[in-house]
Structures are given as structure tokens and as C-alpha cells.
Design goal:
The complex is a heterodimer of chains A (143) and B (186). Chain A is mainly β and 143 residues long. Chain A has a single domain (4-141), classed as Jelly Rolls. Helix content of chain A is 0%, strand content 54%. Chain A is built from no helices and 9 strands. Chain A has strands at residues 4-5, 14-18, 39-40, 47-67, 69-77, 86-92, 101-106, 111-122, 128-140. Chain B has one domain (3-183): Rossmann fold, CATH 3.40.50.300. Chain B is built from 6 helices and 7 strands. In chain B, strand 3 and strand 4 (57-64) form a beta hairpin. The chains are: A mainly beta (143), B alpha/beta (186). The complex binds guanosine-5'-diphosphate and magnesium ion. Chain A: It comes from Chinchilla lanigera. Chain A: It is found in: Cell projection, Cilium. Chain A: Keywords: Calcium, Cell projection, Cilium, Metal-binding. Chain A: This is Intraflagellar transport protein 25 homolog.
């Protein structure tokens, strides 16, 4: 099976929920394959968004490009509906003055249909997420 | 159009009118007001403040200590991760004004390395004959600290909205600055 970026809107992936949104910087910017566009939090933490793959995938590596994020938590679900999320990854990021945080996380047990990404805290009043990509394989193309 | 959310903390000596100010701000008949009393003896006033000429708004979450005298541990929890500061003194009480620098320092220590937009509010201007703090002196100090300065009388319902509107505007400006920064990263 070919390894692809599973987190692209062009591949059918969607952001189905985000706790904050500026219509100029919507959460879709996270999965558009372009690090120039971004989603911003709009005040107070935690803030989160949920990614739906519309298929069963196995993630081997997660790459998150962000700015000013301090504590990041990722939960995943293998259900058909966005329920039953389980704790998967928790990371304290370092502040990278003037350049994107580029966090590569090698994942264990990466089976997922949904990801829930939670920004627990930040280095400032606001933080941005520019892109998330997930390297891995499609296990099952549902419907 | 964006709707921001900001945690607003109230600082200042006891009895200067912090609770009165938050309550009058809430009870004003405007839209989207909610009130929650949290079990910890903290009162939370939530109100959306539109920023003039923008279409944007800020939902202020004002955390008040609900009459309880605060000891440092509880205050630390209540003051965790503030976004904006409303610093209040009583214009008839010189001590309450001079203590403002202590309160400001304590508030800023909550967000080291980050700016904390704030207002200085001199309350109880209705007690004109007992005034002990010169408005010009307060203004000068506020200016030096980067705070916007207001005088209010909660009792006479005078000028009580302006400080919160100012906080909303400052917070929106801060947001726009950050977005510009994010835009320049790649
Ligand atoms: N004369 C006058 N009294 C006020 C004003 N605002 C509050 N007070 C009174 O000051 C006292 C302390 O107010 P409170 O809001 O509990 O102060 P806090 O301890 O800072 O929260 C109460 O008796 C209020 O009624 C005002 O604008 N003018
Ligand atoms: Mg009080």
C-alpha cells in the first residue's frame, strides 16, 4: 500500500468541528496542504478541532506546524461517529521565536477514523495551527 | 467578522466596588448576558461586547471573587491565564490607589513575557466631597503603566460600560497584531 498524506481536504478529509473560528482564518486551512494559511484560536484555552478522515486509516507519523502552542493533546477514535475518543498523544512544545513550530510525532497504534486535537495552553493569548499532515496508509475505504 | 473570548480579571483593594461594577455591567439590559455562580465562591459574568466600527466582538468572561476575602492560593487559581485586566480603586481612598501598583504587578506576573491589556478605574465619583485621589495623578500613573484610565460611579450608573468596551477594543487590537505575525511566518 502506498503511503500518503491522510490529512488533506483534497483526499476527502474534513475538519468537522472547531471551538473557535475567525471566518478569515477557518479550520479548513489546517488541511489544505498549504502552511501559509492557518487557523487561529480566538481567545482562552483549551481550544480544539476534530478531523474526520471518512475512512479507517493507520497513521505512522503526525506532523504539526503551529505557532505559540504550548501543550498539545491528540485523541483519536476508530468509531463511525465522532465519539469514544481516547487519549493518544500529549506533548509540550517549545517556543520557536519567529518561525513555525514543526512537531514530528512518530505514532504508535495509529488506527483512526477521527482525530481530536486539543490546544491545552499557549505561550500567548492566541495560537495558530498552519498544517497537520499524517503519514500512513488507508486501512479501509468506508462507503 | 470574529468573536473573541477574553478572561477578564478584577483587581483592587476590598470594597472599592469591583463586584458592584461587574454586576451593573451584567444587569444592563443589553443582549447576550449570562450569569453563572461557580461553586468555588467565584462569580462569573459573561457578556459580549461589540467593538465599534468593526463588526467584531469580544465575549468577556469576568471573574470576580464574589465577596470572599481572597487568600493567595485561591487568587492564583482565579487569576490563572488572564487576557485582560480591570484594575479598580476608590477615588475617596488614597490607599486603594497607591495599592494599584501592587495589584498590577501581581496580575502581570500571571502572564510573564506576554502583554496584558488593562484599564484603571477610579470608582465612587459620586462621593465628590470625599475625593482623595486627583484624576490627573491617576491619569499620569496609568499612562506610565500603559493602562487606559476611567472614572465611574456605579451608584449613579455613570460610565460603567466604557472600561469594558475599552478592554474589548484593546483585546481585538492584540488579536489583529498576532494574526499579522502569524501571516508573516511562512
Ligand atoms: N457611593 C458609592 N458606593 C459604591 C459605589 N460602588 C460600590 N459602592 C459600595 O462599596 C461597597 C463595596 O462594593 P463591592 O462591589 O462589594 O466592592 P469589592 O470588594 O471591590 O467587590 C458596597 O457597599 C457598594 O455598595 C459607587 O460608585 N459609589
Ligand atoms: Mg467583591
Amino acid at each position: 500500500k502506498m503511503k500518503t498524506d491522510l490529512c488533506l481536504s483534497s483526499e476527502g478529509t474534513e475538519v468537522i468541528l472547531a471551538t473557535s473560528s475567525d471566518e478569515k482564518h477557518p479550520p479548513e486551512n489546517i488541511i489544505d496542504g498549504n502552511a501559509e494559511t492557518f487557523w487561529t484560536t480566538t481567545g482562552m484555552f483549551p481550544q480544539e478541532f476534530v478531523i474526520c478522515f471518512h475512512k479507517h486509516v493507520k497513521i505512522e507519523k503526525l506532523i504539526i506546524q503551529s505557532y505559540l502552542v504550548r501543550t498539545l493533546r491528540v485523541e483519536k477514535s476508530t468509531s463511525k461517529e465522532p465519539v469514544g475518543f481516547q487519549q493518544w498523544i500529549e506533548k509540550d512544545l517549545v517556543h520557536t521565536e519567529g518561525q513555525l513550530q514543526n512537531e514530528e510525532i512518530t505514532a504508535h497504534d495509529g488506527h483512526a477514523t477521527y482525530l481530536r486535537v486539543i490546544i491545552q495552553s499557549a505561550f500567548d493569548h492566541f495560537a495558530s495551527v498552519h498544517s497537520i499532515s499524517a503519514e500512513g496508509t488507508v486501512v479501509l475505504n468506508s462507503s | 467578522m470574529v468573536k473573541l473570548a477574553a478572561k477578564c480579571i478584577l483587581a483592587g483593594d476590598p470594597a472599592v466596588g469591583k463586584t458592584a461594577l461587574a454586576q451593573i455591567f451584567r444587569s444592563d439590559g443589553a443582549h447576550f448576558q449570562k450569569n453563572y455562580t461557580l461553586t468555588t465562591g467565584v462569580d462569573l459574568v459573561v457578556k459580549t461586547v461589540p467593538v465599534p466600527d468593526t463588526g467584531d466582538s469580544v465575549e468577556l468572561f469576568i471573574f470576580d471573587s464574589a465577596g470572599k476575602e481572597l487568600f493567595s492560593e485561591m487568587l492564583d487559581k482565579l487569576w490563572e491565564s488572564p487576557n485582560v485586566l480591570c484594575l479598580v480603586y476608590d477615588v475617596t481612598n488614597e490607599q486603594s490607589f497607591s495599592n494599584c501598583s501592587k495589584w498590577l504587578e501581581k496580575a502581570r506576573a500571571q502572564v510573564p513575557g506576554t502583554s496584558l491589556p488593562g484599564v484603571l478605574v477610579g470608582n465612587k465619583t459620586d462621593l465628590a466631597s470625599r475625593r482623595a485621589v486627583d484624576p490627573a495623578q491617576a491619569q499620569a500613573w496609568a499612562l506610565g503603566q500603559g493602562l487606559e484610565c476611567f472614572e465611574t460611579s456605579v451608584k449613579e450608573m455613570e460610565n460603567y460600560e466604557a472600561p469594558f468596551r475599552c478592554l474589548a477594543t484593546q483585546f481585538l487590537h492584540l488579536y489583529r497584531e498576532k494574526v499579522e505575525l502569524f501571516q508573516g511566518l511562512v
